[in-house]
Amino acid sequence: MTASGIRPRAAPTTVCAATLRRLERAAGEVAGACLAAMATRQSWFARLPAEQRAGVQLVTQTGVANFVAWLGQGHAVGATATGRGRLTAEAFRIAPRGLAQKLTLRQTVELVRIATDVLEQRVPPFAADDCELQVLSEAVLRFGREVAFAAATAYAGAAEDRGAWDARLEALVVDGVVRGDGGDELVSRASALGWNPSTAVRVLVGTPPLENPPERLGELRRSAVRMGHSVLVGAQGSRLIVLLSEPPGGSTQADPISRIAEDFGPGPIVVGPVAADLIAAHASARDALAGLRAVAGWPQAPRPVAADDLLPERAMLGDPAAHRRLVEAVVTPLTEAGGELLRTLAAYLEGGAALEACARALFVHPNTVRYRLRRVSELTGRLPMDPRDSLVLRAALIAGRLQSAGGLDEPSARV
After folding, report:
1. 3-class SS at 345?
2. What's the domain range around 57?
3. Model pTM greater than 0.85?
């Protein structure tokens, strides 16, 4: 209310019908100017395939037409959020499905900025007077902001869809490795996730994190990438399975497995042996899962623990691969060395690990026993005097005897 008592005239919030008709007739020309500016100001735009340029053209033409409709509905200065969102998001809803996968969000924002600049130059001259000039200038800025938000929303939705699809695909790959699936289907799925199927891999199994699983598993992935590894993660109920690549040049850290183990849940973590490639990773997964079932038999097991360090416990659970590994790692090299080493080891362990008693039983000097036990350690990597290693060696002797007596099925037929 002024001093004279006359209420001032409110500023218009839209433009007249004649101005709208002129804008509608010029919409195609304005859209063409936007596309020409995109090609001029962004060198990569001209290198896009014709299909993708056509997609951008469709989005641009729809956006300019929607801007005119936006004005006609009185959205220049104030309107409901639903109306704004419907018109600004429509251009991205009708865009070709693959366009968001070909253009990055940064590139799309650059194109929106160019289109907004062109609208700022081309639209205001259509105003019938100074009031409409102000309305059109504000409308371009507001519409450009809404389009930018719509673009960000569209890309966020596409990212969520891709993330959900990748998670399902990742779960299928991990499940395929566990079940022993092979062939082109497994390789194709892994390749779609960016995994190199020919790289060496080992499998880790444990429990999923109890608190904030998505964040902890995300940190596990980031840690692996920082150390130069690729990972595929699958949570299967109460167990977490991780496929960890072994880069040809080695990891950038001395012990990447210990770092990755920090993001597992509580309880033991078992690490399978290195497999040559993704198809062969089933053997690593099989050993790791067998170790996870048997690790309760060794309460002092380190975390993480190698599946091969759980061979005695796995053998007691009837794991044929563990029987075979024990024989191959202990009995076979000692037998090939002449047989005296195997007899000496058996006498030493079964005689209570007493050096003098073993020497008397074999009718040899104690120094001969010491020498033979040292050779056993060199050939097997196990110290007969160490309590844990002596358990492994004794289990290997028993497995070898059972195999020789035919008490074990052919391991390869049962794996």
Report:
1. helix
2. 17-161
3. no
